[in-house]
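Intended use. Records such as the Carboxypeptidase X (M14 family), member 1b entry shown here are meant for training and evaluating sequence-to-structure methods. They are not intended to support clinical decisions.
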Amino acid sequence: NTVKETLQNTALNVKSYALITKHLFPSSTLNHPFAFSECPPLGLESLKVKDSQIQASSYKRMGLGPHRGRLNIQSGVEDGDIYDGAWCAEYKDQNQWLQIDAKKLTRFTAVILQGRGSIWSLDYVETFKVQVSNDTIKWKPCMNATEEAVFEGNKDSETPVLAILPEPAVAQYIRINPQTWFKNGTICLRAEIMGCELPDPNNIYPWQAEEGTKDKLDFRHHNYKEMRKLMKSVNEMCPDITRIYSIGKSYMGLKLYVMEISDNPGKHELGEPEFRYVAGMHGNEVLGRELLLNLMEYICQEYKRGNQRIVHLVEETRIHLLPSMNPDGYEMAYKKGSELAGWSLGRFSYEGIDMNHNFADLNTIMWDAIELETDKSKLINHYFPIPEHYTSEEAMVASETRAVIGWMQTIPFVLSANLHGGELVVTYPFDMTKDWAPKEHTPTPDESFFRWLATVYASTNHVMSDPDRRPCHNEDFLRYNNIINGANWHTVPGSMNDFSYLHTNCFEVTVELSCDKFPHASELPIEWESNKESLLVYMEQVHRGIKGVVKDRDTEAGIADAIIKVDDIDHHIRSAFDGDFWRLLNPGDYDVTVTAEGYFPATQSCRVEYEHYPTICDFHLTKTPKQRLREILAKGGKIPKDLQLRLRQLRIRKLRASTKLINRRRASQQRRARGAHN
């Protein structure tokens, strides 16, 4: 009757009413006590609801205006700026309200409330009423039988509380009307509204829902069992190009599954670069997890269809997708659901460790060495060893972190991205500032290429590249073109990005995928479409720069751990176990030098073009006579005549050099003696 009454008040005819009720709410669901779950959020948190759609009776100041009354919105470090953590009414009375215009006739089913996000103030609403309207003039209260319903609100400022309307209310506008609030605080709230948009009676195809993408993928949230099942189904669909393996277990024993995609799964092919995506480091930042599951489905489908872009990517790249680095944290957030998990539930490991700060801090080791070492030629700039204290069993290192480090050390990754959520920006190393400054631009020697990588993802992402989008929380990254040096945002000691750059050959950025850490399932198709091109084009960057194989000139065997140096870039890389290497570089001309223990150095010029394929720069190194002698003697062999002659020449050269040095010293001593005598 409530639905019928409201619809009749909107002057819809009987035919339209019948159409709406038939297609939107079948009779079996109209009286279901948990019907709210069938309706998605309007989108206050995801920013689908525009600022202009939110109004209020009053507000303290602009930073606490109605546009800040969004679920999980985060304030700045200081109260009083334009980015505060809630809508706060100017007055403390029961006549205050926050109003949302749904723009269309909507079946409202529930309200989710949260207090003010602030580290300095404690403000939240304890009880509230709800009213609806179609014209903002005549308001109808939500009733509980014969009385106006009063809903339970918050008991703290962070935990979201769900209030299900006793009966779904159909209208265009909805108001939240606080009745009581924390006694030592004021009226402040953040909110989300659950509601189903009613079909437009003027639309002759009302049953056709708007789709965010044409791709037929499994768009829903997958818990651990469902994730494993989906990965298995992709592997069964494309057994020739996929392989599932585990790199370890979480604290609670859940396996860290990886999907490998390659034309030769399970094998490192000479000259083929290794790429990885890692998602779910913070278990409650779930969009990356779903995007990687969608990505493996998509690559499988398109490869089978003969999509040449995908075929080329699979045949020329070995791809590794880790959808859930923190499965324990994800399960905690998943049980609460997308709107009720809050901002931090599931972020940490089961032990309470933030994995984003859990990798070995190699930055400090590097900067300390630079300050203390007087002979700069002795400094290293890559492959920094992990400190012993970090590897001990007593060290506070998550089992998940240890597993990922072992993975990094096993596979010669070239390029990676770490998928997060809660913002819209791409950050690049270094993530940690020198001297522990709160934030400061702290570039790597590969600053220009990292900026390119970040720009590639940000500029192709539909939401990030929208010049009219509003900031998520308290930072306007549009002014930086949606990319920023990580340390210039906030310092992060022990980040995976910095560790990857300093301990391995791999370049890695962090992608903050969405304002909402846990988007509703209904938003996943749109999120996929927004990120699909970005995910693909970023992977293709692994083929930029130079690649080659370092070989022994005599045996043609690959040389492992050869050091590849690029002039004017103070960061070297090393060849893999079979001698191949990849050096990511922007277009230009470079002098490249390769050194290896027991070999003479070799240098050549390599030009990197603008095309999407690497320049081949192979190196053949010649063993030093000493190295040849060591190898022959180790095998008990006879020294060849050419080597004997070469060694004799070296001994003579060394003898001459030492004789000259002795003569110089004697002459110098004689001069000093004569001077003292005079």
